[in-house]
Amino acid sequence: MKITDEYRSKCVSAAEAAKLIRSGDWIEYSWGSSCADLVGDAIAARMEELTDVNFRGGVIMKPLTFIENDPEGRHFTWNSLHMSAYERKLAQKGMAYYTPIKYSEVPRYVRENCRTDVVVIQTAPMDDCGYFSFGTSVSHYAAAIDKTRTVIVEVNEDMPKVHGGYEHAVHISRVDCVVEGGKRGLPVLPSAAPSEIDKKIAGHVLSEIPDRACIQLGIGGMPNALGKMIADSDLKDLGVHTEMLVDGFVDMVETGRVTGMYKNLDRGRMAYSFAAGTQKLYDFMRDNPSVAAYPVDYTNHPFIASKIDRLISINSAVEVDLAGQVCSESAGPNIISGAGGQLDFVEAAYNSKEGKSFICLPSTFKDKEGKVHSRIKGMLTLGSIVTDTRAGVQFVVTEYGKVNLKGMSSWQRAEALISIAHPDFRDGLIEEAKTLKIWRKKY
Length: 443
Hints:
alpha/beta, Glutaconate Coenzyme A-transferase, 26 strands, 21% strand, globular
């Protein structure tokens, strides 16, 4: 059968595709800016016919109809591998549940530990060779397809076809049905406007970045500020190796900061696993041979990423204690996000030749009543999740400076971290350090 004939024979409506879902199924459903919402809406319409259907995904950027229509979870359950702001609100209402991960290991979880009955994903249109590009979200889709009973692709004509890499596309022969969605756009994740504090933190990091460094950036005000500063700097021949591709990288390319010509891996190419940003980013990715899409067990695996010289990893945190433990996932027991690939890149950057890992956070935050609290604490808030252990953390950065914790004893760590805490909280932190027996008297 010709590829075009096979394609046409597998085209169905979203409602017909949704009929393939059975009670008790586990569905791999969407990651980041790739969301198969036509099929999702059709599954929601079958709610009364289905029970105990579990969905798995993460970094969701638009409402999930099947969850919104079933607030008590009588029919559907959302299992998040990484909480977006939307998913966090669902979790607070008891409508979503987090799956702890080390992001580089997720394809292995899917192949060895997780049940997957149906894969429902959005793709770019099929090419002349019969392949559907995963586009903005590669992540662990190929692993899920390897283990599933049924594969449903929802085609979005606005999804950019991307280059690989490997495991960045699925062939029509492995697809059970195709839902044509026309031009549906992609959800936009605007870059947060950097605050003055973000700019100060970014400035401390920028001074540590050499020419020919390879950059990993996350999302948010501080990484966005750093991306702008790098774009406006005189740095030369930078590379990119990241789990998440964001607008900041486009700025760096357009100003000539990024060439990738000194990367040990993927020379001349920007390796990523998923992307979310503005239309500028999606247009940049489309059929761009300098962009290489990979599964996350390639981009994030510390053994692989650490082979790249001068790997610079920049990540954010919620709080840090005086031992150097980092929490990036929760405020006490209340979940905020997920571990994602932070620990992967903390390990990879430190083990890279001339590499550096940075954990960045403002020194304070305000609670709902407007009271100011320090993000550097004697001990983590009760119930907070340790994302990075004290032994693994290298640089910690606030607007008041940066400290390298590697090789420091407990009293040195306390002194160093207090030195970059907000001045209003330093005396209190010294008293906490004394209580914890980690403050060295000066004679």
